[in-house]
TrEMBL record:
Residues 180-310 form the Glycerol-3-phosphate dehydrogenase NAD-dependent C-terminal domain. Its EC number is 1.1.1.94. Belongs to the NAD-dependent glycerol-3-phosphate dehydrogenase family. This is Glycerol-3-phosphate dehydrogenase. The lineage of its organism: Bacteria, Pseudomonadati, Pseudomonadota, Alphaproteobacteria, Rickettsiales. It catalyses: sn-glycerol 3-phosphate + NADP(+) = dihydroxyacetone phosphate + NADPH + H(+). Residues 8-159 form the Glycerol-3-phosphate dehydrogenase NAD-dependent N-terminal domain. InterPro entries: 6-PGluconate_DH-like_C_sf, 6PGD_dom2, G3P_DH_NAD-dep, G3P_DH_NAD-dep_C, G3P_DH_NAD-dep_N, NAD(P)-bd_dom_sf. SUPFAM superfamilies: 6-phosphogluconate dehydrogenase C-terminal domain-like, NAD(P)-binding Rossmann-fold domains. The keyword Transmembrane does not apply.
């Protein structure tokens, strides 16, 4: 296998920047593409991304650019954009002359909207390039500063997945490998929906018992959906599945949990939902997932209850 020598990250948010930090600690450098000029200037001149990571000092090997063309020559492109931007970025990447050997690491969680499909389906329709999913139960800031973290590399191409896992593994980063791209994608979608439900339960005055119950029901619904789509039930124990579900649902600082809490306090107002100032991927995910699985006749009380509130 060709040695992968340089990594570019598309997405200058908290997770994209954190992944750039992870890569830079291994390879010495990483390039971040973002159209936000202020972020590019701050990264290049002050080694910070204060909009998303406060005063966290970034490795000096991280640089940033506002030109998507600059990523075209890189061996690996990490996609770490909001789910709503995924399809747009894919179309833009098709226009810049990427090599068919460029490897994609997909760090975005969610679904395509037009048509409604998993990211893996979209990637295989648009590119012949190898790709893997990179996911796990991680807060971006902890990854950025080098705290212990775990990720799962998921791909149909196991030699590629193992190669990337071996490259990134360290005492501070535990990396697992899986072939089950279905279950990992479903988990990444469902966990944000369950986090909204967690915030709602908190606002209703429920305690830790209810949250533990909710996590178990969320895992059950991941299993139900995954099975219907051909996923492997053994994958439920992966850090990217149960770990990510637990972390997101138990975090009071999670955007989705916070939204759920405030959504209940505002009586599930559609006006509140429409004007919420922060991107809440669980809300859009609930709508999309509800439509996506509508033909499977699945019993999904937790995710369906959130979908009914946001539709």
């Amino acid at each position: 296998m060709k040695k992968l020598k340089n990594f570019a990250v598309i997405g200058g948010g908290s997770w994209g920047t954190a992944l750039a930090c992870l890569v830079a600690r291994v390879y010495g450098s990483a390039l971040i593409y973002t159209p936000e000029v202020n972020i590019v200037d701050e990264i290049n001149n002050h080694h910070k991304n204060s909009k998303y990571l406060d005063d966290t000092a970034l490795p000096s090997g991280i640089t940033a650019t506002v030109s998507l063309l600059d990523v075209a020559s890189y061996d690996v492109i990490i996609l770490a954009v909001p789910s709503q931007a995924f399809e747009i970025v894919i179309q833009e990447l098709k226009q810049i002359g990427l090599s068919s050997k460029t490897v994609f690491l997909i760090a975005t969680k969610g679904m395509c909207q037009e048509p409604l499909q998993l990211f893996s389906t979209k990637m295989e329709q648009e590119f012949d390039n190898p790709y893997v999913f990179i996911s796990g139960p991680n807060f971006a800031k902890e990854v950025a500063v080098g705290n212990f973290a775990s990720i799962t590399i998921t791909s149909k191409d196991q030699p590629l997945a193992r190669y990337i896992a071996d490259e990134l593994s360290s005492e501070q980063l535990d990396v697992s490998v899986s072939t089950d791209i279905i279950t990992v994608q479903i988990a990444g979608i469902v966990k944000n929906i369950i986090a909204i439900k967690s915030g709602i339960l908190m606002a209703q005055g429920y305690g830790e018992n209810a949250r533990a119950w909710l996590v178990s029901k969320g895992l059950e619904e991941i299993a139900i959906i995954s099975k219907a789509l051909g996923g492997n039930q053994e994958s439920l124990t992966l850090p990217a599945v149960i770990g990510d579900l637990v972390l997101t649902s138990y975090s009071t600082t999670s955007r989705n949990t916070k939204f759920g809490y405030e959504f209940h306090q505002n009586n599930y107002s559609k006006e509140f939902l429409a004007n919420y100032p922060v991107l809440v991927e669980g809300a859009s995910a609930a709508k999309l997932l509800h439509s996506f699985v509508s033909n499977y006749n699945l019993d999904l009380p937790m995710t369906s209850s959130v979908a009914k509130l946001v539709i």
